[in-house]
Amino acid sequence: MQILCNHYRTMISKEFILKKIAQLLLHVIFWIVVLFCYTYFFGHNTDNINYVFSFSLFLMPVTMGTTYTATDLLIPKYLLKEKYFLFFVYCLYTIIISAFFIIISLFYGLIFLSSLKIAGMAPMTRSPLFLFVAVYFVVFIASAFSLVKHNYKSTSDNQKLQNKILETQLKLKEQELQYLKMQIHPHFLFNTLNTLYGFALKKSESTSEMILKLSNLLDYLLYQADKPKVALQDEMNHIKDYVDLEKMRFSDTLDITMDLEPIDPKIQVAPMLLIPFVENSFKHGSIRNQKLSIEMSLKFIENEMHFAIKNSILHDQPEKEGIGLANIKKRLLLLYKDRHRLDITKDKHWYIVTLLLKL
User: So what's the pLDDT on residue 250?
Assistant: First the structure.
């Protein structure tokens, strides 16, 4: 482990050194280009290359000092941090100091390079205005590059931050979905085992058939429900198995109708998406006129799935939302945020759930 850590540190240090070397080379190339430009422009209308080159070399430290003051101090510490007053004040100081050294460069050319003979000076170096323009033009170009670099870095950092936020939200979403699935499993199993227990007490002959159907449901619950999506046909098949289990439990007191359109095998939905609605109808439905009435329908209109289920209730029955229904609401918001509409209504005789899902 220690060897791996040391190797990783070595790789990082090498990358850091290579990055610094690349930055240094870029700076060297930039200043060589500036020196070449100074020599070229100051050499206009003169053949005294030695004078021009010496003058350009003397002016380079002034240009470099002014440039790095702007790019490494004024821009990052004041302009980008919106300290505009301090930025203006220090810019003024920088201009005054750099102007002083530019004038010294002018005297250097006059005294040391032309022996106090103005005629011996290169024409382009005689004008302080031109020297100011030359120096501050380089500062302006370098500052523009610096601002572009800071803007790119800021955009890149913001993008990385947004990506991290999205990744965190995605992980939280996946964890919440996993929690909701884990919540469904024991809840569904508990209700089904209660039904099986009732049959066992009665020593019903249908107990074995019920265990077989329960086995199919558990297979779906354990091996299919952890998948991101399952075929809608599989979901409906297991709803039918669940309904068959309830038919055995309710016997003659159950009146259920199912109007299900043929399902395209390509259609997929989140697992255990519809079963909680069905389970809720049996659990919270009430026997009225000696019957528990449930009506279920599944239709497809263009690219939308319309699922509806309603169960009979008593007139004075209090409204109660079970774990399964609360769970499915959260899952729908996470999985189909802008692609579903869930309506739950209640009248004197019916508790009605309708779900529209854009496929």
Answer: 77
